[in-house]
Design goal:
Blueprint: E1 2-10, H1 15-26, E2 33-45, E3 48-58, H2 62-68, E4 74-76, E5 96-98, H3 102-113, E6 119-122, H4 127-140, H5 174-184, H6 201-217, E7 221-224, E8 228-234, E9 237-243, E10 248-250, E11 254-256, H7 263-271, E12 276-278, E13 281-290, H8 291-299, E14 315-318, E15 321-329, E16 333-336, E17 346-349, E18 358-367, H9 379-394, E19 399-403, H10 404-412, E20 434-435, E21 438-440, H11 449-465, E22 475-480, E23 487-489, E24 502-504, H12 515-538
Parallel strand pairs: 5-6, 5-11, 6-7, 11-24, 16-20, 19-21
Antiparallel strand pairs: 1-3, 1-4, 2-3, 8-9, 9-10, 12-23, 13-18, 13-22, 14-15, 15-18, 16-17, 19-22
Helix pairs in contact: 3-6, 3-12, 5-12, 10-11
């Protein structure tokens, strides 16, 4: 196989155009088989936009073709598909996996396909039932504590933009395997090669459901409404799990993939003296702009007929803190993502078409254990809770919304709350795109002064990068507090916690940051669990 790098064609080109360009580069008259590895957008000459490609090509008489083509652009390439290290297990040891977010689903799937018949325990409900519960919450404000945006089949990422890009370096092929499995489960094939792949929440729901069926078809078992409240531990070894209601399930190999919002699970781990530590994360606000503003800035057009809604990624520094965009949702919605009574947390979500009127992104500020009032491994959790309580009180459980001008003026001392005839007025023709009730309120009161000042400094910097980003009519909504886990459950080189046989996994455990990296960690942990089971049976 040959690999072609740096092939460029105008956005909107045909398949024939691509084939002709490949044949020209290879200096061949024969039509090769072309496989897109990576496609990214080059907008440096906007509004003239281009796709940059990396391609794998199969062609007859490869050696002859390779000799006469440009070696700077073409190389010989050998694809090495991912291989799970264990196949056809026929023993009797059955691992337990806790949590059905990406980490838990992929861990259970790999173990099931290898013959281990894992038991997957999920505290929440199946994704279709969960979807109904979430919609009821957005429409009527009735929160289901175990079935919401944070808890239930698919994890928190199910109600998001469904981004699948990751910065995790991967030499084992796990990243590619995750994307391949997603496509097999119903995701669009474009995720295999788009530089910034995404699914959208509507497709994610179908994919999650199909992953469940794949686990069951391979011999795994999934139980919903099965909340783990305790562990059975003897002589430093896991012996089983205890469910809410008292049911005990024996297990010597337990994967803990709880998600970043499983605060009661973190508290249980602390009580059981399982080693954890507070870790850095970030908090901030959702910011909404008209999507046409972002499209114009990124593509030079208010709406691109091929590329659709544009995205962005911005970063800045404020003192020693990072300020950056997170979970950007083109054509998306801001959603009430709360999971605890009396506390409010928000997130962003897009459907696969990304055809909403507004763009939104979290603009977040980094925090570290030094910012937390109390010490201990759960200090970050309490920090989140205090901010979420303030946000809840501010608008009586609704999502508080404020114009950026009013937010900035209050933070910089340019005006006092209530001053100015325009304060509290949403611009005509620019309504917030929100899932859940909302209310205009003093959003600037939520964050501590140092963090809200950093937020404003970041917004002003981003306005110099993307014209109009710091426009006074941009909408600021809060609070975005669940960007990543506030704790890390410590694990050793064998991926086990301080309790032998207990494997912390995924984002909630502090080892991932997004759907794909969580799924990759789930695969990695599954590999280790399988290896350890085989080693134990040989003794």
């Amino acid at each position: 196989m040959l690999r072609i790098n740096q092939l460029q064609l105008p956005v909107g080109h045909s398949r024939e155009d691509l084939t002709a360009k490949v044949k020209k580069i290879l200096r061949t008259d024969k039509t090769p088989d072309i496989f897109v590895v990576r496609r990214s957008v080059d907008a440096r000459k906007k509004p003239d936009l281009y796709f940059n490609y990396i391609l794998n090509v199969k062609v007859d008489r490869q050696k002859e073709v390779y000799k006469r083509c440009d070696r700077k652009q073409v190389q010989v390439f050998e694809e090495r598909p991912y291989r799970f290290p264990v196949k056809g297990y026929q023993g009797k040891i059955r691992p337990v996996v806790i949590g059905s977010g990406p980490a838990g689903l992929f861990c259970a799937l790999m173990l099931a396909k290898a013959g281990f018949h894992p038991l997957l325990l999920e505290r929440g409900r199946p994704v279709r039932e969960r979807l109904r519960d979430v919609e009821i919450f957005w429409e009527k404000g009735k929160l289901a504590p175990e079935s919401n945006v944070q808890f239930g089949e698919g994890g928190a990422g199910t109600f998001s933009d469904g981004k699948l890009n990751t910065l995790v370096k991967d030499t084992y092929g796990r990243n590619r395997e995750v994307l391949r499995i997603f496509v097999k489960a119903g995701a669009p094939e474009e995720i295999l090669y788009d530089h910034k792949p995404h699914m959208g929440t509507d497709i994610l729901c179908n994919v999650v459901e199909n992953l469940r069926h794949a686990i069951e078809d391979a011999g795994g078992c999934i139980r919903f409404g099965a909340k783990v409240t305790d562990f059975q531990i003897k002589d430093g070894q896991i012996r089983g799990v205890v469910l809410e209601g008292g049911e005990e399930i024996g297990a010597s190999y337990v994967v803990l993939a709880p998600g970043h919002s499983a605060r009661d699970t973190f508290a249980m781990l602390k009580e059981r003296n399982i080693r954890m530590e507070a870790k850095p994360f970030a908090v901030g606000m959702r910011v909404e702009h008209p999507q046409r503003l972002i499209d114009q800035a990124q593509y030079g057009l208010e709406r691109h007929p091929v590329l659709g809604s544009a995205s962005y990624k911005v970063t800045a520094k404020s003192g020693g803190r990072g300020v950056y965009s997170f979970c950007m949702c083109p054509g998306g919605f801001v959603v009430n993502a709360s999971s605890e009574a009396g506390r409010l947390a928000i997130n962003g979500m897009s459907y696969s078409k990304r055809d909403g009127q507004n763009a939104n992104s979290a603009i977040i500020v980094s925090v570290s254990p030094e910012d937390f009032e109390d010490g201990g491994p759960l200090a970050g959790v309490e920090f989140q809770r205090k901010l979420e309580e303030k946000a809840y009180r501010l608008a009586k459980g609704k999502i508080p919304v404020e114009r950026y001008k009013d937010y900035k003026d209050a933070v910089l001392g340019s005006s006092a709350p209530g001053d100015g005839k325009e304060q509290g007025k949403i611009p005509d023709g620019f309504a917030p795109c929100i899932k859940g009730a909302w209310e205009y309120a003093a959003v600037h009161q939520i964050l501590p002064q140092e963090l809200r000042a950093a937020f404003v400094e970041g917004m002003e910097h981003f306005g110099r990068v993307i014209p109009g980003f710091n426009d006074g009519n941009a909408l600021v909504e809060g609070i975005e507090s669940r960007t990543s886990s506030p704790v890390r459950i410590l694990r050793n080189e064998k991926l086990q916690s301080s309790v032998k046989g207990l494997y912390p996994c995924g984002e909630g455990a502090g080892y991932a940051g997004g759907i794909t990296s969580a799924a990759m960690d789930g695969i990695q942990v599954a590999e280790m669990v399988a290896k350890h089971i085989l080693e134990a049976e040989k003794k």
